[in-house]
Amino acid sequence: MLLVRGRGTIAGERLVRVGDAVELAARKAVVVAVGSAPAIPPIPGLAEAQPWTNREATTAAEVPSSLVVLGGGPVGCELAQAYARLGARVALVERADCLLGREEGFAARELREGLRRAGVAVHDGTSAEKVERAPSGAWAVHTDAGDVLEGERILVASGRRQVVGELGLDALGIAVDGALEVGDDLRVPGHDWLYGIGDANGRQLLTHMGKHQGRLVADAIGGAEVALRPGVPPRVVFTEPQVASVGYTLSAAEEAGLRVRAVDVSTQGTAGASFHGKGEEGTSRIVVDEDRRVIVGATFVGPDVAEWLHAATIAIVGQVPLDDLWHAIPAFPTRSEVWLRLLEAYGL
Fold this sequence. Notes:
CATH superfamily of the largest domain: FAD/NAD(P)-binding domain
Mean pLDDT: 94
Strand order of the largest sheet: 16-17-20-19-18
CATH topology of the largest domain: FAD/NAD(P)-binding domain
Structural class: alpha+beta
Low-confidence stretches: none
Helix content: 10-25%
Number of strands: 20
Distance between the termini: 55 Å
Strand content: 25-35%
């Protein structure tokens, strides 16, 4: 294996140029796995503030005295709470009416309360309008609600942008407007030697999904026939409380035309929860396709619920009937008995 560090571009069929001097010719395939980059919104004065992105925030050597976070998705919530716990005064600005806009509403509400307890001032339903230097020397973020939020640093966590358009794919006649188009076999149409995985193809911007696609492509290059399966990947927000979800939310399932029912129980409603995370609030939900009697979505909010997620993922991917899940007996006294509580609440 040869590792070459540098900025690579596609120079022709199976040909990659690194910098000005190195050209690499592939025998079989080229894989585009460039990830994505943080998107910096065009807010007047923001660029002058040299805002942090997730990269700077996770490699900083010092904790700023104050921090304004723009964006209430997973990255914004995780880093806002982390820096608040490290001693910074943190304000979070999210233009949508709630945090975690793609997750269940109850998860957003319970996470908001967790952020509040950590000392994060959450300003949802609010947009940043401009940034300028304050008399104190900090950066002042002016919002459409009339607030002025000061921070020694500003952290932008408001989305990602594609970078595949910077790879010279026009040399192959491939017009790229955003993500790289690939088929379910992860090949670029018309170029059976060229693959796109992870954030680059825009399908599922999650590390574990990029890793899975990488494994599929390795198999394909080795001669196997592979295909991505449809579905929504597992997702975790590593905050306190954690938010772990997979498959559809209730509203997304309804929008997809499914006849569904949501079943909710307390995350803490088991014997195991009486000593692990005792006193921590949280809700667990399954979304059931009533016609097929299978689970199509699950969301858990509470301490360390990320470790519950794979059981839900297996149930959804395997389309395990509820009547069979009823006989998948959880051990006492573990928190996995939440599955028993959920199926009891459904009516089994």
